[in-house]
Each structure stands twice: as C-alpha cells, then as structure tokens.
Amino acid sequence: MSTYVLRYFPIKARAEVARILLLASGDKYADVMPDWPAEKENQPLGQLPVLIETLEDGTEFELSDSIAIEKYLARKSGLLVKTGSMDTAREDQLRSQINDVVDMHYAYMFGPEGSHKFIEARYRSNAEAFVKYHEKILTENGSNGHYFGSETTYMDIALFAFITIIRLPNEKAIKDCTDYFSESNAPEINKVYETVRASSIAAPYVATLD
What is the pLDDT at residue 210? Predict the structure, then answer.
C-alpha cells in the first residue's frame, strides 16, 4: 500500500479535493507545510500543492499541479467518469469551469486593489454563467445530486470542495460572492453539495470540519 505526503499551505484552497480523496482512500498520508518561500525552488514548478507517493518498494512518485493530483487520486479510487470519451471531456470541462470562478475569487482577495473593479465584474459574470450551465447539466442528469449517472464521481467531489471553500467567511472576498450559489439560486448545485457531504466518501473529511 502506498503512503502519501501532500505539500501545501494550512488553508482550504487548491489542495482541498486532494485532501478529500486522500482521506477517503484510507491510505496513510500527511499534510506537510514546507518552509516557504525558502523551499519554493525545491518544488517541481516552484508552487504548491505537490503530492509525493511512496510505493511499497520505496519508489517515490512526485506530482505537481492541483488538478493533475486530483485526477490521479480520483483515477486510483475509481471515481473518474467511466461512460466514454464524451463524458470524460465533459468532466474536464466542468472541472475547469470551477477554476474560472475560483481564480477570480482569489485574484480579488490577494491581487492589487486597483484591479478589484475589473476582477469583481469577471467573477460575477463567470459565477452567473457557471450556475446557469451547471444547473442545466444537473437537471438533465435527473436532478439526483450527481453530475454523471447516479453515483458520486470526481466532479461531484470537486463541486463539494468548491462550495465549501467559497462559503468560508473572508472579509477580503467580494461582497455577497456566495449569493450565486445559494439554495434558492442554485438548487441543483446545492443538491450535489448535500449529497456528497452525506456520503461515505466525504465522511472522513467532513469529520475534520469545524
């Protein structure tokens, strides 16, 4: 059985899907916060997260990029969609659309104040388009709390992590940024969130939440 080290900051952000998947796997893993920025140059791409897997024979496998890490872990757990290349492409598209919103969320909080007006407009445009499209996709799948079929998959977990993160209180965030994802405005998205939160897959992670 493999063991894992996940290098990332002690915050809920780009490594959260990986944390959910690692906890769900039951494999031994540790969160490690490198001495930053002193160890920045020692990371494969000079950024975090980084996953280090140690196999039973002692071989180490190192992987950078948050989505690459997520998909590797999801594939190992059998959670990627299995219904053909079109659904795989759709899965990739839907996951990327989360980042279209999240990137603006972080850019507003941590970027220069002079760019706030532009970034807020982008966030609101992306969030509105996201909700409209994802509500449609989820309705077409039967309004059953899943993006694909009737079982929890990687995309469901990614959406759960996204909603968890976007709802974290932060005085630096765009005002009312979570309203787009309220139960009244995005009922199907919230159904996925609640379905995953109540699942056995997410249970070990949910137990860590305050």
Answer: 67
